[in-house]
Amino acid sequence: MFCLFPFVSLAQRLHTVSGTIKDESNGEVLIGATIRVVNAPAYGAVSNEYGFYSLTLPPGTFTIEYTILGFATKTFELQADGNKKLDVLLREQSTDLGEVVVKANAYDKVTGTQMGFERLDIKEVANIPVLFGERDPLKVMQLLPGVKAAGDGNSGFYVRGGGADQNLILLDEAPVYNASHLLGFFSTFNADAIKDLTIYKGGMPAQYGGRLSSVVDIKMNEGNNKRYEVSGGVGLISARVKVEGPIRKEKSSFLLSARRTYADVFLRSNQKYKDYKLYFFDLNAKLNFQLGVNDRLYISGYTGKDEMGLGTTFGLDWGNATGTLRWNHVYGNKLFSNTSVIVSNYDYNIAIENGGNQFSIFSQIRDHNLKHEFQWYPDNKHAVRAGFNSIFHAIRPGEVTSTESSSVNDRKFQRRYSIENAAYLSDIWKMGDRVSLNYGVRLTAATVLGGGDFYTFGNDGAVPDTLHFEKGEVVKTYWNVEPRLTTSVKVNESSSVKASYVRNSQNLHLISNSTSSNPTDKWISNTNNIKPELSDQVSLGYYANLFGDRYEFSTEVYYKSMTNQIDYRDGADVFSNFDVVESQLLYGKGRAYGLEWQIKKNSGKLTGWLSYTLSKTERQIEGINGNQWYNARQDRTHDVAIVGTYRANDKWTFSANWVYYTGDAITFPVGKYRIDGRTVYLYSGRNGYRMPNYHRLDLGATVQLRKRKHWQQELSFSIYNAYGRENAYTIDFRDSETRPGGTDAVQTALFKYIPSISYNFKF
Amino acid sequence: MRKLPFAFLLIFSAMCGIGCEKVIHVHPVNPEEKVVIEAVLTNRAGGNVVMISEATGTDATSGGDGISGAFVTIRDSDGKIDTLGEMSKGIYGKESLVGTIGKTYWIFVVLTDGYATTAQSTMPSPVPIDTVFLKEDRANIHSAPRQLVNISYQDPADQANYYRFVQYVNGVRENEVFIRSDQLTNGNHNTAVLRYPKSDNNDIVSGDQIRVEMQCIDKSAYDYLRSMDRGALGDAILATPANPSTNFSQGALGYFTAHTVEERTFKAP
Fold first, then answer.
1. Residue range B126-143: average pLDDT?
2. Nearest-CA distance from A496 to chain B in Å?
3. Which residue in chain A has the smallest CA separation from B157?
4. Which of A733, A607, A599, A739 is nearest to A666 (CA)?
5. Does A263 touch chain B (CB under 8 A)?
6. Among the listed residues A197, A175, A168, A166, the one whose alpha carbon sits nearest the alpha carbon of residue A342
7. CB distance from A303 to chain B under 8 Å?
8. What is the CA radius of gyration of chain A?
9. Chain A residues whose beta carbon lies within 8 Å of the beta carbon of residue B248
């Protein structure tokens, strides 16, 4: 593979300037800052996810400009007469003042080499109104083209026709298996602790892999390394607090952020609901240490838990925990390396008491993950990445334990073990002033390990044969080669065209029989029967900065095909013998295609965007819908979002967003009959009908209260669903009470006018 | 019980002063013609009935009538064949036919237009009722106390068992499907609680005449009732809607069950 990289022979002696770019106020590293050489535009660099950059120049005197959106540009005169280290601090600047237009931002869609991605600046989205006023980056993300909400008020999402489990959600590189709280209404990402969120819908770089439809890469804040800072807030349903500060000034810092809901306090104060338990909490912590000039160490962790319960009758708790240890090292000034050791855990426990039987069901997925990566900036034309990633998955599908007096027997379903190994190599190659190529390959080997029994299955789900494997024995290894390619061509200074092809594989699968997502949906790994899911996506995009760069226009068209898609058989017994879960499964393929438009305004008093997606998503699974193609549940023909924030003055900011989308594809009965004295519905075909179309307007306002030195406060008001549209959450069918013999379709709507108020402070 | 998470959702939204239901308009369609057969064979005299009808559209006020003139036979594993007569429109039976424990039965139905279908069911060994009693229960959305019927029995360890319970209060049958398997409780003493959705006026009160039936059913009947309960009764939240897994061939709807029956009657104290 290395022979494919065309390296320029070094005719003259070159010098390298390298360093880290940080926020002057708090020492947080700045990701994606652009380093431009004003008097030699052919040269340039971009800071990586740890703020590191490396710029190689011929001898001479250069004017170097460091820019990133939201910060004042800094310029240095530099004599390139030897390798130099230059750490740069940039000062934050609000975008609505003056006519500061940041050109050549690495995340600028016109000039960047990446396509199919969106980046959210957490500060930028803080004013967008959301349900219950809980700032939630995943919900703001749903307002982007190609990203669809999984339901009213839900933080789950679908990207370009993929399922909810086909999104790789990374928090400081650790996969998060269930990113939602409270049946999906809140995400596990407390906006206070988050620095940056980037979603890749297509053209995923080779360092990411493991899910078919998207990568959501979330980075936690590092913590202020200059001064102590306390911030927090009290909202309608939760309270938050964040503490950060230096451990050793400018050398190391910490951050601790916590959030807990208190709705259950109100719930219990009502006599009727006193036995109910309903809350969640999140805890984020991060430490980072600068160890000398060339080394940096980060330790970050997250834990969160949901609990709901009704007396001793029923209890369900679930939660994620992740831990990441990362070590950055710079070799010389062109080679950057990062080593990560990651642990990730998701588990749930259901406790049930029924007729004197008390028992619980526990399930868990736990990952141990090692990553090592080199980033090499050999010259001005290439940025090379190479690395490997090895993840050991241990899944406990279900373990039943009961009390002594219970008639329920203890039972453990077979634990499943697997290893995902991946190696990748990629290069961003600036082929000239106009053309660049971002190409790479990811090689994956997914190994299913024993011990335990594996089975062969007939077409009807019967088990003709059982194969036994010892612990550690290899059951099967699935190899996949995943090419990743994006090419971009600048048409002129303000517009570009890009095209990409990517293949992704997925070795962990979430199976769900319910029409809504549940914390108890099961993650399963490949087996001898369950094969890796594969997707191939081609996309083409056009990007333009309009009206003197005040507007950013982008449009992308994509086609994606997916194989080895999994669904339950009709009438599957989801809770039955999980050791032979495959007897309940069917396999098939999927396809998704669409067109996305977005126009965005980044500067001025009024900022925001308008996005529109036209798309189609289908599945074809042997044994469902008479083996014909059918609309996937998340198939939505039209999807519109309008998002606006208006900064009226230093005190007041107003915001609004409106969304509209075609109702989800669902299955309605086509007839009915009577069995056992009650009405049973007759179905033909899957997802042949539509929910009513969805639309909603949210309004928000934020007022800055009187500022004192180091003491800021604000009040946020919002109304979710301002005009009270009753959007269908579910549609049930029942015998009509008003028309004898008729059937009523009854829709349940959840959220209608939800006003909220929250108070935030910082000192 | 299984709907509790959803109940939480509704409470959660109700707390916020919201969550509302309304009837919406859905275009009715005319479905393809489908034959529906509900066939029951028990170990009691007069306990067999086969009802043959037609599915209707969702908004049909007529139709769904019984289908006359069908030729219905039941054959057992010894090769003995009984022909069932039409007792009233679409309802077939034979007084003298009584199921035998452990035998497998095949039902054959041929309609006048030549459509034919068959299904198979095995009558399991009966498990006797141990005790039946009323007990206070609070597992409902409002945590309101109410009396529920409990049935205890000793599950045999040497076989897979499937149970179904039917409850009548003052002669009115409770529509909730009460089924159990011994998958997690094999070989143990069990108490089944007949928990049904609470409404304002369906609590069992003192003086009510209660009759409960315990049926030992086979796996195919259990699978039918389970998949019907989860996916075909009009609730969208439990599972992807789908026709239940029937044991009939040729696309017929409904099911055939050969099961044992034991019943108890008592007055609520």
1. 86
2. 44
3. A409
4. A733
5. yes
6. A175
7. no
8. 27
9. none
Contact residues on chain B for A566, CB-CB shorter than 8 A: none
For β-strands A147-149 and A157-159, DSSP reports them as: antiparallel
Contact A385, A54 (CB under 8 A): no
Q: Which residues of A touch B5 (CB under 8 A)?
A: 183, 308, 316, 518
- Give the per-residue pLDDT at A93: 76
- Dig out the tokens for B235 from the structure: 């609730």
What does DSSP assign to residue A485? E
Q: Is the pLDDT of residue A98 over 50?
A: no
Give the residue carrying structure tokens 């790479």.
A440
Interfacial A residues in 351-390 facing B (CB < 8 Å): 352, 354-357, 359
Of B59, B143, B155, the CB nearest to A311: B143
- pLDDT of B13 above 60: no
Q: Give the minimum alpha-carbon distance from A525 to chain B in angstroms, rounded to a whole number.
A: 22
CA–CA separation, A341 and A324 (whole Å): 6
The owner of tokens 């039976």 is: B93
Is the previous residue joined to A472 through a cis bond, with omega within 30 degrees of 0? no
Examine the pLDDT at A616 and tell me if it is beyond 50. yes
Are A228 and A31 a contacting pair, CB within 8 Å? no
Cα four-point dihedral sign A429, A430, A435, A436: positive
User: By the 8 A CB rule, do B61 and A741 touch?
Assistant: yes
Q: Which DSSP state fits A176?
A: -
A276-323 confidence digits (pLDDT tens)? 788 899 999 999 998 988 899 999 999 999 988 877 778 888 999 999
Return the closest-CA partner of residue A435 out of A495, A379, A490: A490
| Range A188-212 burial, b when 16+ CB lie within 10 A, else e | bbbbbbbbbbbbbbbbbbbbbbbbb
Q: How far apart are CA A254 and CA A285, in angstroms?
A: 7
pLDDT 10s digits, B44-85? 988 899 999 999 888 876 667 899 999 999 999 999 999 999
**Hey, how many other C-beta atoms are within 10 angstroms of the C-beta on A34?**
25
Taking the C-alpha atoms of residue B96 and residue B82, their distance in angstroms, rounded to an integer, is: 9
Question: Residue A502 is inside which H or E element, if any?
Answer: strand A495-506
Q: Which of A592, A596, A491 is nearest to A544 (CA)?
A: A491
From the list A278, A316, A681, the residue facing B234 with the nearest CB is A681
The rounded radius of gyration (Å) of the Cα atoms in chain B is 20
What stretches of A356-443 show up as alpha helix (H) in DSSP?
Answer: none
Chain B residues lying within 8 Å of A672, measured CB to CB: 55-58, 60, 64
Q: How far is A652 from chain B (nearest CA, A)?
A: 27
- H or E segment at B11? helix B4-15
What count of other Cβ atoms lies within 10 Å of the Cβ of residue B34? 19
- Candidates B8, B142, B215: best to mutate against A (most CBs of A within 10 A) is B8
C-alpha dist (Å) from residue A39 to A62, A77, A82, A85, A374 = 6, 10, 19, 20, 30
User: Token digits for B17?
Assistant: 């002063």
Judge whether A269 is closer than 8 Å to chain B, CB to CB. no
Q: What angle do CA B7, B10, B12 make, to 5 degrees?
A: 110
Contact list in A for residue B254 (CB cut-off 8 A) is 673, 675
Tell which of A262, A307, A310, A739 to mutate to test the B interface (max B CBs under 10 Å). Answer: A310
Closest CA to A692 of A720, A659, A641, A727: A727
Q: What's the predicted TM-score (pTM) here?
A: 0.89
Model confidence pLDDT, tens digit, residues A575-608: 666 778 888 888 999 999 999 999 998 878 898 9
ipTM attached to this prediction: 0.92
More confident residue, A121 or A496: A496
The answer to whether the CB atoms of B240 and A515 lie below 8 A apart is yes
